[in-house]
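Please predict the structure of the following assembly.
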Amino acid sequence: MKKSLIALAVMAAAGAASAQSSVQLYGLADVWFGSAKTEVNGNSVTNTAVESGGINTSRWGLKGSEDLGGGLKANFQLEQGINLDTGAAQDSSKAFSRQSWVGLSGGFGEVQLGKVWTSYDDVRAAANDTFNANIAASNRAWLGYSDRTDNGLKFISPNYGGFSGSLTLALGEDKNTDADKNNSASSVASLGLHYANGPVVVGFAHQRQKQSGIGGVFSALPGVAAAELQALLPTGLLQGKTTYNVLNGSYNFGMAKLVGGLSHVKQTIDGAPDSLKAKEFNLGVEVPLAANLNLGLGYARSKVEDSGNDLFKTTGYTGALVYSLSKRTSVYGALTQAKLDVDNSPSEAKSTLYGVGVNHKF
Amino acid sequence: MKKSLIALAVMAAAGAASAQSSVQLYGLADVWFGSAKTEVNGNSVTNTAVESGGINTSRWGLKGSEDLGGGLKANFQLEQGINLDTGAAQDSSKAFSRQSWVGLSGGFGEVQLGKVWTSYDDVRAAANDTFNANIAASNRAWLGYSDRTDNGLKFISPNYGGFSGSLTLALGEDKNTDADKNNSASSVASLGLHYANGPVVVGFAHQRQKQSGIGGVFSALPGVAAAELQALLPTGLLQGKTTYNVLNGSYNFGMAKLVGGLSHVKQTIDGAPDSLKAKEFNLGVEVPLAANLNLGLGYARSKVEDSGNDLFKTTGYTGALVYSLSKRTSVYGALTQAKLDVDNSPSEAKSTLYGVGVNHKF
Amino acid sequence: MKKSLIALAVMAAAGAASAQSSVQLYGLADVWFGSAKTEVNGNSVTNTAVESGGINTSRWGLKGSEDLGGGLKANFQLEQGINLDTGAAQDSSKAFSRQSWVGLSGGFGEVQLGKVWTSYDDVRAAANDTFNANIAASNRAWLGYSDRTDNGLKFISPNYGGFSGSLTLALGEDKNTDADKNNSASSVASLGLHYANGPVVVGFAHQRQKQSGIGGVFSALPGVAAAELQALLPTGLLQGKTTYNVLNGSYNFGMAKLVGGLSHVKQTIDGAPDSLKAKEFNLGVEVPLAANLNLGLGYARSKVEDSGNDLFKTTGYTGALVYSLSKRTSVYGALTQAKLDVDNSPSEAKSTLYGVGVNHKF
């Protein structure tokens, strides 16, 4: 039987790829079992928990690269974050919540269009304490930021003797025909500079978010409801224009690797004199105890002022032992605590997690 | 260790496939960067935008075919539409919003059961102007229709010397035990006839949608809120039984390919004398300017009458340049405008898009 | 061009797998076409329907296993249930609604962490009548239960001469800091014992669900709205602590395979004297009529008492013919009816389905 032409048309419309597939299917499954304790103003609750992503966020994805000749390549990546403990998507409104982009790379560098990691995140995430884990002290105590963005345009430079740079721009596409039509769109603009050579890694990054709340301080205390935390703080402080700066790096001494960073966050509110400032630092050390066994320790702190007055502090520390069963699979044990203290007030919140987990890349 | 029988039972229940996989993973990533301007009654707004699917809708999917012997095959396809600019699913209520079916094919033709493209869509989508792009003039100015359907039964005939035909039937399964239990179910019935031979393609298709709104006129003007458009039109006109007829085709002269089509849409409202009629046409030309460079131009128009009185007109035009970097990857630049004019009224809406994009199949 | 280090950092952060992929992509597509009739208190409606999963639930998934040496393996599985007739996810709040776990296996057995099938389900689903189909009489007439659980810890023993066992524990992680903070978390605890040797399969399983409704009786009558069914029953009976016990098995005589099981369900309501008890049984036979043709017949019954008083009965029977076109693909025809009779009341509901379908594994 000859193939129906309609069927052929449908196949063509469906973008049927050539015979040899060019897609790589990959992912990571990370689950831990342990205890999650939360205290808000002395009121505490402890859940025994199975949770996703102690070290890395669980995910699955598709990616590929096509050689177009002359050094030019077409690249794409689609990646979905998963809460492996429940099978839920990290963001159920998204098919691919972590990455979703297509672009070209060549001698000029690389361009990506779509949902991309911000250039700030590329630098920030390269030097968190404690194995860059989700439970790193800096990820628990520092203020949150937009680590990825919709509608992104990203440029990544070539590598010049260890130096590289990256720019990300994204517009909210939220201007409209209503009375407030003269409003400019919300946006994220992000710059990252990176140097890596032998044992040395140094990075600097800057990010500007327009009309986006910080929000992130809440993400620093998993298990504590955002509303509970917000109730501890003055209202109206969490909307506006926010800038982030980070300077970080690491040095590998062989017997140990030191990791550290300084961060400064400033948030201004449109039409208001208030400004929120945060000064943050983190410090970590990673020690190879044996061929397959690594110890990581980290400490991080964020001090937040409202128009020059102390507002609140968050501190976090983390310790983790990672035992590698193979290049792709490890087991780990970890303990982490994050604390928020409201200045000039007895209000505080604390979150303590410990447990053991499995991390498997595929 | 012997494998636990319980584990084996679980694996069997999970439908563990044979060792050699029979699945093809495929997809398409299409993103463009540009400007999206919308004007409603002179009130205009322009967003700089990164958008998905200028030429083809971004997607990923799974498909496969098993040879059962004697010419018989089992086939399936699962395909999800993606807004690549944000990572969102096109329809977040669906795991596979574009296709989701299983069926058999052989000397008798092909049968598909599940969520399928309608036979009308197979013909309609085979001769849109401007490379069958999403931004083709006909896709922007013509009224919308159900291009795919849940609960579908589809038959595709074998190819007889260039002729083939297709039938699609789908019932809404929405009869119920309430007072209105005598209601018949909503439905889509669709027929497509197709002839292709050398440079000639001709198609005719008919589709009948019961108890479905047109709705599609709104999809023709991306960026303009449906509610805004509806406010421009008389109420009550957009629900009822709708029939679609299309006659289209193309002829490839070598130095250029001409594409065109005529469409007629009629909507009647249950228990009301009103009827909505649309007469539509489109015309396009595709010119190979160089080995890898193609120019496409298209114009489309829809004229809508309410019970014989002029109601509104939509017109659209599109121009696109596509430069192929490989069989799988191209870059493009495009400009398209669609306009809705309400007759005997100053009301109008206009949408203008232009930009450059990347289209990559995998 | 050297690869940008930032790009490398992004790739590392994305958990880029090693070159040789270790993922198996698999799935199952099962759709049937037929008639679905529902009667509630004599009020009936019949829909012609295309439905997903007559024999097995349609699904797609990713799974893999890494040999870590010394008999140890790292394993994972991600599996999403699909309504193939519409392309919808079975549970749209989940990326992987059926399974989502990672774990280790070795001489000690297997451990899985995440969303897992309960040990009770492993046994229960090994001996349903009529090919273990979704439309098996026991799946239609018996009360429902949690067949899988979030936050699960599962242990599967090695196989000792045909014997194996399994344990599943899951906590709801729903303790909180509110006034009711002393509440214990909801939970599922489940035990399964299994023996298989030659023609004999025997299983026993126990499951305890805390603070979960039965709910499942409603799932036994597809097409009848849960609210309609609930309206037939006394209120307040469907919340509390529930225990399930099942004893089942099969014997393959060669010319026929007998399948059967007994189930006991007890639900108590916190702080109330009421208890709901169900006594259930099912019986089935599977007969190979020819090399590729199998007939399955099943009958199941559930009798529910409220504090010793008869409350309602559900009965179901199913007949199915399955013709295998290959190891992966079969076509089938089936008829199934389930009925709910409320004792001491004229209230009743009935659901009758028949149709033909395709079942294709990939």
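Chain B is about 10% helix and 55% strand. Confidence is low (pLDDT under 50) at residues 1-20, 212-220 of chain B.
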